[in-house]
Amino acid sequence: MHCALYDANRCRSCQWLEKSYPQQIDDKQSLLQQLLADHPVAEWRAPVLSAQQAFRNKAKMVVSGSVERPVLGLLHADGEAVDLIDCPLYPASFRTVFAALIPFIARAGLTPYHVARRRGELKFVLLTESTRGELMLRFVLRSEQKLTQLQAALPWLQAELPQLKVITANIQPVPMAILEGKEEIFLTAQHALAEQLNDVPLSIRPQSFFQTNAPVAAQLYQTAREWVRALPVESMWDLFCGVGGFGLHCATPQMRLTGIEISAEAIACAQQSAQAMGLHQVNFAALDSTQFATGNDSAPQLVLVNPPRRGIGETLCQWLSEMAPPWILYSSCNARSMAEDIARLPDYAVQRVQLFDMFPHTAHYEVLTLLERKS
Predict the structure, then answer these.
(1) Residue 246 annotated as binding?
(2) Angle (nearest 5°) at CA 64 between 60 and 66
(3) Domains in the chain and their CATH numbers?
């Protein structure tokens, strides 16, 4: 993949861009194998590859410049605005949206926020596209001062971009490098973006996590489904479940499934999907995953965990060791913390590992690992 911004040293987000894609995959697989070197792996599955460009379904753009000439992208280390509307990681459809947003910002009088001066209103625009081509657009504002102007100008934007289904204003008043605030104001009647991966309907609400690479995410979820359904499992927990992608793929009408996620927004999405699928033995709750698990005196047959980068940690590992579920399915975005957690689970054998290249041109990847209790 060629990127003029990388060549000009204006954006270095793709740290591995100078490596060939086969070399990137080889390096990631080698790093993963090194991290698990102390844990015998019964089966290594071949890595799942990604498209090398236009794979991102999200854009998180800093808004800088002036109200007449806004710049969407990032701020360089020297404070200069870097225009990212032509970033090759974004699909071509995003350029149409950015082309409409630039004049819209002027129409709505949304003055870009100046970090050093702490003046202005519009901090970020956050864009998400579903595989159906529908869009969610979020304006991150310093305050509600320009909200009326934003609402008044929206009909023009909606006429230009009929694929916009969910539009919100997020209020982030803190003068720090924080992407979003707690307050979300819906500017459309629709509050969630409809998505479907494989045969599972999913919903994406503004503050719920969703993978940035939908084709690879679909393969990740489908793989988890195949591995789980090959096991004699009738009860399962999906911890750190997000919008329910893993659990909803693995569930059957007979399976008892509990999904736990601290984000109430994500749980609302998961519940909606379970209802649409007619799954009556599925329960999702907005709770802390570790506190939920350790508050129980027994475990289901399989515990699926999909934690943030820090991993599941010592407390949850100790509980799993004591409760001894027959299987643990571990999905990780940080193989280092996953390896540390596996070391805390000496009574489990690593049966299967597969790398999913969710983030080409970087050192990051997802990995799915099946652990089985030793007899």
Answers:
(1) no
(2) 140
(3) 4-52+213-373 (3.40.50.150), 58-190 (2.40.50.1070)
